[in-house]
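Ticket #4471: structure export looks truncated?
Reporter: QA, pipeline team
Priority: medium

Steps to reproduce: submit the single chain below to the structure queue and open the exported record.
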Amino acid sequence: MAERVFVAVELPAELRQALGRVREEQPELKRVLRWARPEGLHITLRFLGDATPEQVDRLVRGIAELPDRPRFSLVCRGLGIFGSLTRPRVLWAGVDGELDALASLQADVERMCVRFGWPADEQRYTPHITLARARGKVAERDALTALLDRRAGYVYSRFAVSGITLYASRTAPGGAVYTPLTRRPLGDDDPPL
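Actual output as written to the record:
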């Protein structure tokens, strides 16, 4: 039986809770946005889709064998959308900080996935935290604009990236549920925050 899997950076609980409160700021957007569960918020490094048990086993081994990398720090800042104000696809929180370190980590994961037979991801990697997906056209454009404007430069948190996780994803009422399959810690030293 295949599982839907992806590799991601876990977020600290305090940051997930802060981002989860964003949905309460514009209640009228609840009708048009499908919000992610706060406990599942993360930074995707590579979405893989369906994987057989054998492929999952290879991924678990491959993640354990990734090159050692030191921990690094990121900043969660602002909100944005993929798409347009009338047809947004995704509402996201921005990621800033040591982006070169994040890009190197993502490139390691990408090379591993290609080595194991997944096609190369042709899209440029754009780190973000998906907060919600649109259900179609958004008539509440003013509410969305107000939320984006209010949170444009807002800094939610600075946090240490201390590892990566391979997750299985399953659809459930109220949003996707993610189950960690394996974790790979980064170096022992905490980065300066």
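Status: closed, not a bug. The export was complete when the record was re-opened. Leaving a note from the reviewer for reference: DSSP finds four helices and nine strands in the chain.
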